[in-house]
Design goal:
Layout lengths: L32 H11 L24 H28 L7 E4 L9 E8 L7 E7 L8 E4 L5 E16 L2 E14 L9 E9 L7 E3 L1 E6 L4 E4 L16 E3 L15 H54 L2
Antiparallel strand pairs: 1-2, 2-7, 3-6, 3-9, 4-7, 5-6, 8-11, 9-10
Length: 319
């Protein structure tokens, strides 16, 4: 004879406990809605139950446990990414000025007391504007008796002279006026973004009592922006933001060579030496620009890689 199932009392726990051979929960048909929720919660997998009090090393969305070693490793990777990006940015900033200045270089020897041909190199620093004007002012403390610009295609040169308080003597003649400024103005587009232009000048007689000549250059862009390269370099101080072009002078040459004199053989030898020096100076100038550009690009690439590495490390912490 089959026994009747016992009916739990009002204070007894529900549902009744399972017997040793019973499988699954025993849920009567007339179970209340709240009791069904309790039973389903007790038998559901742990990954399906969301607990607001999740430990620090558990990701709530997936229930995945992250070990302490892995979390520390992710933090170190993220820090390395930030440090790499910062270092790369600093490297790029340090390298950029190496090829951005208006500079002056001799095309051959620039000896004290002699004559020289020099070039002012003007790079375009802007992406949306062209260089349309260049003004070069000469040092008043070392006036030059002779200044002649070389024609540059697409540019018009204007020479400005000033009267000296104390006349100069050159080749037995007294000089009362000297060139104080040369201005080049573009006839067309000028120096476009990504290019540079050289402006040659013949100078003389170079001073004998100075090791350098400091010029002042003013660069004007097509959008009316003006950059003044007029800040002198102070000894023992960092390079200024807009340094003035400086022409370094070499030791005085032997008498007879300073003014282009001497025999034909001497002139031929001097001409070959000047050509070699000009090529060497041009090669060194281009090499320094190339090196600076490569370092700047490498710094930017390392910075981008560092930022990406840091972002990926951060995502791994939450995955």
């Amino acid at each position: 004879m089959r026994r009747a199932r016992p009916v739990p009392s009002a204070g007894a726990p529900y549902p009744p406990p399972r017997s040793a051979g019973q499988r699954g929960p025993s849920v009567p048909v007339n179970t209340a809605e709240s009791d069904v929720s309790a039973v389903l919660k007790s038998t559901a997998p742990k990954s399906a139950v969301r607990n607001d009090a999740v430990p620090n090393d558990t990701v709530p969305e997936t229930g995945t446990t992250v070990s302490a070693d892995r979390r520390r490793r992710n933090v170190r990777l993220a820090r390395l990414g930030v440090v790499g990006a910062t270092a790369a940015t600093g490297l790029a900033l340090c390298c950029a000025p190496a090829f951005a200045h208006v500079s002056v270089q001799p095309e051959g020897p620039a000896a004290k007391g002699g004559y020289a041909t020099v070039s002012f190199k003007v790079p375009n620093e802007r992406d949306q504007a062209s260089t349309t004007k260049l003004e070069v002012s000469f040092p008043e403390e070392h006036p030059l008796a002779s200044v002649m610009p070389q024609p540059v295609p697409g540019w018009k040169a204007k020479v400005t002279k000033s009267t000296l308080d104390k006349p100069l003597e050159s080749h037995g003649k007294k000089i009362t006026e000297v060139v104080s400024k040369v201005t080049w103005t573009a006839d067309g587009k000028g120096v476009e973004p990504g290019f540079f232009q050289k402006f040659p000048l013949s100078l003389g007689q170079l001073p004998e009592d100075s090791d350098e000549l400091v010029f002042k250059a003013v660069q004007t862009y097509s959008d009316k922006e003006v950059v003044r390269w007029i800040e002198p370099q102070q000894e023992g101080q960092p390079e200024p933001e807009n340094p003035a072009p400086v022409l370094q002078l070499t030791a005085a040459e032997e008498e007879g060579h300073s003014h282009g004199g001497g025999t034909d053989a001497d002139k031929a030898a001097e001409g070959k030496s000047g050509e070699k020096s000009a090529e060497s100076a041009s090669g060194d100038d281009g090499g320094s620009d190339t090196t600076a550009r490569v370092l700047g690009i490498a710094g930017i690439v390392v910075g981008v890689a560092g930022v990406a590495f840091g972002v990926l490390a951060g995502r791994r912490r939450t995955s």
